[in-house]
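note to self — DONT lose this again. spent like an hour looking for the file last time. sequence + predicted structure for the chain T wanted, 149 res
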Amino acid sequence: MKTLEFRKEINAPVQKVWDALWNEANYPQWTAFFNPDPDSGSVMQSDWKEGGKTLFTDTKGHGMVSTIKTLNEPYDVVFEHLGEIIDGKEDTTSEKVKSWAGSLEEYHLSENNGTTSLIASVQTDEKWADMMSEGFNKGLMVVKKISEQ
């Protein structure tokens, strides 16, 4: 596993950046760059509870099943990825999934004089590193744009 880290300085209060990341209307906008199928948008469903269930899927029922490992809204959230979803069916036990289950995706925000520093990191297999880097670099530009409006 490789850990990738992305930093973005955003001229907006921390709550506005948090909302740009996780608001139901905003989430599909910045995560569109992670999906190779332009006809299938991104959806996040979460109970927003530590140890609860979070699903990151496309509109066709493919994606990941995860949990929130730690949450300190609006400053920090750490997701732990547990498995994948194919055609709406969860897989948390196959050998394929076991090779990356437990990987983390983290978002840390801090505010200083109205400017928010956003640090996002993700643990990923080397073969997905370029796709993840492109997705985060482009996606966090959208988060910045939404936040600064």
